[in-house]
Amino acid sequence: MQKITFMNFKGGVGKTTSVCTMAELLGLAGYHVLIIDLDPQSNTSRMFGIKDDIEELNYEHLFCHKMYSKKSMQEFIVQTNYTNVHMLPSSEEMCDVIYKIYDGTKETANDKNDRIELRFAKNIKLIEEDYDYIFIDTSPFKTYLSYCAILTSDKVVTPISLDNFSYEGVLKLANLIIELNANFKRNAEFMGVFFTKIKSKTSNLFTGMSGSYQEQLGDLFIPIAIRDLIAVAEANTAFQPLYTYNKKCPALNDYIELLNYMDLIDNRHYKKLKNLLVTKKGGDK
Ligand SMILES: Nc1ncnc2c1ncn2[C@@H]1O[C@H](COP(=O)(O)OP(=O)(O)OP(=O)(O)O)[C@@H](O)[C@H]1O
Ligand SMILES: [Mg+2]
User: N or C: the chain end with fewer CB closer than 10 Å?
Assistant: First the structure.
């Protein structure tokens, strides 16, 4: 079981698209996946067919209190219509929860074993063994929910786009992870960055820039880029995960290569996913 957060404090870089596409593919491959949507915008929840808040749920409990039973955690989880994908949906209530966590930080600051920032991570532990992967989607704003995401995760990965890439931004995120690990005795690993929305992998602009980023970032540069394709944008507008929307979209192949590079699928599942792709003649869409 691995818990992976997709995070970048820049908006529109492909966090949600990556979480949804990779979760859908892993589910189709046969892995059990839980997506946690920590972005109050709820795009990820909507992509998997969850439109409204589940009214009877109390998100303050989820983030600010210790849960004692697996059953109480399972109440927050929805089985989606997509193979092997479960969802802990976002809620408007999460905006208020951010302030509640903040209040709690003052009350629990000196209680080393029970700091409020760790309660969500501890609650997730109650259900994590039901899954092979837990993916956490986050908002572009740095809030206490971002801290909860990092403190819950084994790994953090950062989608980036060419038009607003910032080396300083990546370093800041890497430092935030180091700082939280030290303060809370955790071991979240920063896996690094990968490019999304690349118009052409062979253009001089892209090869030149990725070469220089690779030099700057070393191992933190993941050399798999996701193509910019209209079908991906259309899938997002139609609120459907990419494979369901268009089985022929070549970006699916990019995401399979990324899953493989990140070591999230073994060879058998890699081949299974490759066989699920429908290749087509003609131009990319
Ligand atoms: N590979 C792609 N090809 C074409 N369009 C893409 C691709 N990936 C993402 N997009 C589009 O870019 C926009 C931003 O993508 P997405 O919502 O995944 O980013 P995000 O980082 O989650 O944004 P936010 O920070 O607002 O949560 C969306 O309109 C989406 O359709
Ligand atoms: Mg998003």
Answer: N
Query: What domains appear along the chain, each with residue ranges and CATH number?
Result: 2-276 (3.40.50.300)
For residues 44 and 29, give the distance between their C-alpha atoms in angstroms, rounded to a whole number: 20
Tell me: the pLDDT tens digits for 191-206?
A: 999 999 999 989 998 8
- Site residues for ligand 1, CB cut-off 6 Å: 11-17, 39, 43, 139-140, 196-197, 226-229, 232-233, 236, 251
Q: What's the pLDDT tens digit per position in 126-138?
A: 999 999 999 999 9
- Residue 18 exposure: Cα atoms within 13 Å on the Cβ side: 33
Overall pTM > 0.70:
yes
Q: For residues 63-91, b (16+ Cβ closer than 10 Å) or e, as one string? A: bbbebeeeeebeebbbebebebbbbbbbb
Q: What six digits make up the tokens of 37?
A: 């949507």
